[in-house]
Amino acid sequence: MHLVDDQQRTWERAKLATTLDHKGFGADVIMTSESCAERCNEALGKLENKYDVVVNIQGDEPLIEPEIIDGIVKALQTSSNAVFSTAVTSLKPEDAFNPNRVKCVLDNLGYAIYFSRGLIPYNKSGKFNPQFPYLLHLGIQSYNAKFLKIYPELQPTPLQLEEDLEQLKVLENGYKMKA
């Protein structure tokens, strides 16, 4: 499958989400650089309209469900103390030790505690426990537009650099992330 095909399919799935006001493909694509949050901030600055929530959908997610998009937008809108939201799903055993499949741990209220490329939580047996509800982070996130202006000013953090995961910079700086 070609990358352009994936991007087109991702776009077609995103159009089905009911919570998104502005969506562009083709002439409206905004090319950016840096991390997801920095790219979203850059894109937001280039748009004429002002938005409260910005959603970043990876172009290689052609099967993304519109309900997932709507879910992360609503999670951010209904969580007054969250500045970022993301989606998680059940981790499959075959992805447990794959460092390209990011794992997540949530607290009892659905806020992210930690993200890792390693299996978390990691039990002392060192094996995948089929009875434990491990979570896999999906490649989609939504940001509070005001937070996007702050994010680029935050210095890289030790956990972010060690795991190479920008979500950790958000958590290490004391911000809340809803999943």
Describe the structure.
The chain has about 180 residues and is of the alpha+beta class. The protein has six helices and six strands, in the order H-H-E-H-E-E-E-E-H-H-H-E. Strands 1, 2, 3, 4, 5 and 6 form a six-stranded mixed sheet that branches. Keywords: Nucleotidyltransferase, Transferase. Pfam families: CTP_transf_3.
Which runs of at least 5 residues are low in confidence (pLDDT < 50)? 24-29
Q: In which range does the helix fraction lie?
A: 25-40%
End-to-end CA span: 30 Å
CATH topology: Spore Coat Polysaccharide Biosynthesis Protein SpsA, Chain A
| CATH C-level name | Alpha Beta
CATH 4th-level superfamily: Spore Coat Polysaccharide Biosynthesis Protein SpsA, Chain A
Pfam family, one: CTP_transf_3
Protein name: 3-deoxy-manno-octulosonate cytidylyltransferase
Keywords: Nucleotidyltransferase, Transferase
Organism: Hevea brasiliensis
List keywords for this structure.
about 180 residues, alpha+beta, Spore Coat Polysaccharide Biosynthesis Protein SpsA, Chain A, 6-stranded mixed sheet, about 30% helix
Summarize the structure.
By secondary structure, the chain is α+β, with helices and mostly antiparallel strands.
What topology emerges from the helices and strands here?
Layout: H1 3-14, H2 36-46, E1 53-57, H3 66-78, E2 82-90, E3 103-106, E4 112-116, E5 135-144, H4 145-150, H5 158-163, H6 167-172, E6 176-178
Parallel strand pairs: 2-6
Antiparallel strand pairs: 1-5, 2-5, 3-4, 3-5
